[in-house]
Amino acid sequence: DQDEVFRKMEDAGFDSSIVCFHEEYQGNIWAASTHYGVMKLANSPFMNLFEKAGLGKEYVNAVQIYNHDYYCATDDGLVILDGVSHRQITDELTDLTQGSRIRALFTDSKERLWLCTYNGLVCYDQNGQILQFNTENSAVSSDRFRCMTELSDGTLVAGTADGINIIRGDRVSKTLTA
Question: What CA–CA distance (Å, rounded) separates 145 from 158?
Fold first, then answer.
């Protein structure tokens, strides 16, 4: 690698009978093997941020950049990664959503982050205020929120497993079900 450290590629399946290497004009390296054919080694513009942060494999349902950080909706809660160092950040929002499936993330016109979770709808503003909508504290159709959007007049529409919830003025004003 660039630090002149040898790293064996265990999963490449291309480990013997190599007859030649060639570096082409884009910097990619081609290797030919009498037993395995041809392999191209190329740099990728992509990186696995969870791997870089030292996190395990996780199902990520949505990603939203918010306050210059990466907010990742997973089946086990919210994961926030610093936008520069890619280190994991924990706060009251990650604590609140721990263990909860999050299906979608949405930033509204007031720069508030909304989390569609299977434990209700969560709104987080830039001042750290958290507002929650669930069957215990509001007239939502279900706690299993899946998606949301904002209409041109600022009305928020959030979909659940059982219907649509209309949110005006930070309260549920109407619910549509079957």
Answer: 7
Q: What are 136-147's pLDDT values in tens digits?
A: 999 999 999 999
Q: Tally Cβ neighbours within 10 Å of residue 137.
A: 11
Element holding 49 (H helix, E strand): helix 49-52
How far is Cα 2 from Cα 142, in angstroms, rounded to an integer? 53
Q: Which helix (H) or strand (E) holds 96?
A: helix 92-97
- Strands lying side by side in the sheet with 130-133: 102-107, 113-117, 120-124, 130-133
| Integer CA distances (angstroms), 48 to 2, 40, 56, 81, 91, in order | 19, 20, 11, 12, 22
Residues 138, 131 contacting (CB under 8 angstroms) = no
Chain-centre distance for alpha carbon 8: 31
Burial class (CB in 10 A: 0-12, 13-18, 19+), 97: buried
pLDDT digits (tens, 9 = 90+) for 114-142: 999 999 999 999 899 999 999 999 999 99
Nearest to 149 by CA among 116, 106, 109: 106
pLDDT of residue 56: 85
Buried b vs exposed e over 65-82: b needs ≥16 C-beta within 10 Å? ebeeebbbbbeebbbbbe
* Average pLDDT of span 18-36: 85
